[in-house]
Structure prediction request, 122 residues.
Amino acid sequence: MECISAGRTRSDDMAEFNWTPDELQEIVDNNRLVLFMKGTPEQPQCGFSNRASMVLQQIGEPFVSVNILSDHRAIPSVCAWSDFPTMPQIFVHGELIGGSDIALEMYESGELQQMISDGDSE
Prediction:
C-alpha cells in the first residue's frame, strides 16, 4: 500500500496483509481516497490503472494506492469484497465509485471533486 501525498510516496509493509474483507474495509474506512490498481502510480501496469491514478493526481488530494499485483490473492479478494468485477477500483469516503472511465467522467464534470468536498464536510 502506498500513500501519495504532496508528491511523496510512503510504502507500508503488506507482508502480514491477508486480503480479508475486514482488512480491505479498514483501508477504505481509514482513507478518504483509495485506488486499488495494477502497479503503482509511478509504475502503472495497465492503461486503466494509469488513467485512474492520473485522475486522482489531477485532483491534487492525497490518496492511497494498493498494488493488487503484489499478491496473487489480491484481485479475487478485492473483487469479491467490493462486488465489482474489474480493476482499477476507486473509493471516495468509503464508497466505490467504479473504475477509470467513471472516475474520468466524474472528474471532467466536477462531480468527483464535489463528492470529495461533500464527504469532507460530513
Q: What stands out?
A: Residues 56 and 87 are 15 Å apart (CA to CA).
